[in-house]
Specification:
Helix content is 88%, strand content 0%. It is built from 6 helices and no strands. The model has no long low-confidence stretch (mean pLDDT 89).
């Protein structure tokens, strides 16, 4: 579900348009995700203390990812509604970061389900790569802003999007780290 929600946000960002499908999907999926998170919290009550701790930590990190995805949605909507345009370079950077972060959610899920060390290692490497790319994009953005090639309103939206993508990556890492508790 989270990947579908993220995909619709990504499409809205890329096409610079909010479609009826976008509005329906984001509304429906966000409701379903909230319900799933509530069930996860409820399920932790029927487990041992150690399992409950892991389940609640997982639910908290998924909640944070969901929150950040919804914040990204909000900034994409602002960008579209107020017709704020990014430069080609900024659009390309953001597109690659959003795509990579969205695609990684499948691997995070696989790592949580299988506890496969190879998948966990792959996720850790991808998180590190995307975090490095986001840091580099932030630096290049500062250069563009100093040169005057970036509109201040676009700059604010761009930096918020970067921040929320970075937060999602941090929570992905926290999610797969929770698996260490289960393995012990």
């Amino acid at each position: 579900m989270l990947d579908q929600l993220f995909l619709e946000i990504y499409i809205a960002f890329m096409k610079h348009r909010l479609t009826l499908k976008y509005q329906q999907v984001t509304g429906d999926l966000s409701k379903q995700l909230r319900q799933s998170l509530a069930r996860l919290y409820e399920g932790s009550e029927k487990t041992s203390a150690q399992e409950a701790l892991v389940m609640q930590a997982t639910a908290i990190n998924f909640s944070k990812v969901f929150y950040d995805v919804m914040r990204i949605s909000s900034y994409v909507e602002t960008k579209v509604k107020e017709n704020v345009l990014f430069s080609e370079v900024a659009s390309k950077e953001m597109s690659e970061l959003m795509r990579g972060t969205r695609e990684l959610v499948h691997h995070v899920g696989d790592a949580l389900l299988t506890r496969n060390p190879l998948i966990v290692e792959h996720v850790e490497k991808e998180i590190a790569r995307l975090t490095t790319d986001a840091d580099r994009s932030s630096g290049m953005h500062e250069d563009r802003l100093c040169k005057g090639s970036c509109h201040p309103k676009a700059s604010i939206i761009y930096m918020h999007l970067l921040q929320h993508l970075g937060d999602i990556l941090w929570h992905y890492k926290a999610l797969i780290s929770e698996e260490d508790i289960v393995r012990e």
